[in-house]
Amino acid sequence: MKTLIKNIKLLVQTEQNPKKWVAGADMAKIDNIENAYLIIENDKIFDFGEMKNLPKIKFDKEYDASGKLVFPSFCDSHTHLVYAGSREIEYIDKIKGLSYEEIAKRGGGILNSAKLLANTSEDELYKQSLERINEIIMLGTGAVEIKSGYGLNTENELKMLRVIKRLKETTDIEIKSTFLGAHSIPLEYKTNQTEFVDLVINEMLPQVAAEDLADYIDVFCDKGFFTPQDTDRILMAGMKYGLRAKIHANELDYSGGVQIGVKYNAISVDHLEYTGDDEIKELLNSETMPTILPGAAFFLGMIDTPVRKMINAGLPIALASDFNPGSSPSGNMKLIMSFGIIKLKMLPEEVINAVTINTAYAMGLSETHGSIAKGKIANFFITKEIPTYQFMAYAYGSNLIDKVFLKGKEVIQNTNNISSNI
Ligand code: NIG
Ligand code: FE
After folding, report:
1. Hey, what domains does the chain have and what are their CATH numbers?
2. What confidence score (pLDDT) does residue 414 get?
3. Beta strands of 51-103 (E only): which ranges?
4. Longest dimension (CA), the chain
5. pLDDT tens digit string along 108-152?
6. What residues flank ligand 1, with Cβ below 6 Å?
7. CA-CA distance, 418 to 422, in Å (whole number)?
8. DSSP for residue 211
9. Cα distance between residue 204 and residue 406, in whole Å
10. What is the best residue among 76, 78, 80 to mutate for testing ligand 1's pocket, by most ligand atoms within 8 Å of CB?
11. Is the C-alpha dihedral spanning 77, 223, 343, 317 positive or negative?
12. Proximal ligand: closest to the CA of 221
């Protein structure tokens, strides 16, 4: 089965020699091909190049992309999109002046989502989460990481992770799963946090591992949540089950989270609003992807991560959505690109690298996703007719995506579900 996309005005983010990530000054470079073709064989990218070199072979299906651009699908390496209900009523407290931490202390926030989740069946949770998956697919995302963390007890953490597993099995988007048992401290453990950490390590983790439900392990290492010592214990335990770290760090303070992440060779440390010279130095000598979640900083009115300084120091940067009901109720990665240029002062090329190849790395997928390269999975989208690739991040409120392809097949949305059509 061979599919041709022809007359592409601009084929964006192509790679002849695929890289694991892009860092520092290289983040401002992307390779594009004007007036291009793209050939798909089954679920993979078979070939691409200039139209004048289009091979004379027979195709089973052809698309004409005149006036349109083709991008590799977004990779969203940090989400919490399996959750029950929503928290827009709680946001009113935020409007009235309470901070994220104050809302959490009153039993709102993550604990509120945990209560909703406990009262939702696994089937219903799957249904709500599938709707969000279908939404982000049509917004151009082709690979997504999803965390547990609204269970806060063994039964409900397993419920979340089983839902993620079912989503992996029933959708064409690439999914990675992360066990985030230590997301918040349940009220009954408020005076004995260590006991809750023990529960995560001794009861939750062995069952998660026994059912093979997680690819990564996460901890919310921050002021008012889990300490670097708690995090150290949990990551050490995760390592024994072969789970690589991928943690929340430095969102609310200089929490020591970056240092502990690097110590455990985390694949990514995420949020990083509080990043100073020490954190930059640690990250420079590591294999850990600094991942920024500008949707959360925007939604909660927090300070912005010093991304310019980090790139100038030579670091790679990934940008992810953090799709969750409390701090970032959106999985729109095109909007995240816009926050990158507007709030973080990143260049259009830097944001493209940050939402494709660098987020692919941050979820262990840079060999198969994150660029247009021969042999990679054919996850990409065709835009509407737009003037330039820079227009994508700039036109921050417009849906500019015309057609989405996952595993080489066009995704057709109907009102109830999504099916692949060829
Ligand atoms: O990444 N920071 C911790 N966890 C989420 C928020 C989850 C929630 O508020 O429901 C985050 O922002
Ligand atoms: Fe998060």
Report:
1. 2-72+370-421 (2.30.40.10), 75-361 (3.20.20.140)
2. 65
3. 61-64, 68-72, 74-76
4. 71
5. 899 999 999 999 999 999 999 999 999 999 999 999 999 999 999
6. 80, 109-110, 113, 220, 248, 251, 296, 322, 324-327
7. 13
8. T
9. 34
10. 80
11. negative
12. 1
